[in-house]
Amino acid sequence: MCDRHNKDGDCFEYVESGMPRVPMSCKINGEIVHKMVDPTMTLLQFLHKDMSLFGTKEGCGEGECGACTIKMNGRAVNSCLVLAAEAQGSEIITVEGLSKNGELSVLQKEFIKHDALQCGFCTPGMLMSARALLDKNNDPDLEEVKEAIAGNFCRCTGYFPIIDAILATAKKEREGSDHE
Ligand code: FES
Ligand code: FES
């Protein structure tokens, strides 16, 4: 266990505000979810604590690193900056929603093929920023890819393998060789 696990084994400290919980319903990775949430809880904390979806990472917790990026209503969003209660009625895709029936998506396979990850901490956020881009634009140019991942920090790869993986995914998906 890391030093941020609490006694229940949760991998971050979340302290209830003590305010009355509020109802929240949304769709996460295709599944409709109804929960009562602490009004001060972030969406990132909700994904970890209430949904046990630990693929989305917490880096800075203040909107700077992109490790917590998810897709919300079609856009790449920093889940550390959104309250869980604000997700009411939204459609959310996390990194766990990219693979289908246990098979990695084209995007994930291209990340592996291009050595676009080393420690992997930035990878879920990178994948979700890339997915949000490719869902809107299936033929991005280099600058568009750079812009899409501009909010995602990577301390390991130097970014070029990531960019190559995203461009290769776009090409494959355009060719229709393997749709996600
Ligand atoms: S953890 Fe959300 S942007 Fe860094
Ligand atoms: S692979 Fe380590 S931070 Fe990106």
Give a description of the structure.
It is built from 5 helices and 5 strands. It folds into 2 domains: 22-96, Ubiquitin-like (UB roll); 106-175, [2Fe-2S]-binding domain (DNA polymerase, domain 1). The N and C termini lie far apart (34 Å). The chain has a 5-stranded mixed β-sheet, with helices on one face. The mean pLDDT is 93. The longest helix has 16 residues, at 160-175. Strand 1 and strand 2 form a beta hairpin. By secondary structure, it is α+β, with helices and mostly antiparallel strands. Helix 2 (106-113) crosses helix 5 (160-175). The structure holds FE2/S2 (inorganic) cluster (2 copies). One FE2/S2 (inorganic) cluster is lined by residues 117-122, 154-157.
What is the CA-CA span between the terminal residues? 34 Å
Low-confidence stretches: none
Tally of structural domains: 2
Q: How much of the residues is beta strand, in percent?
A: 5-15%
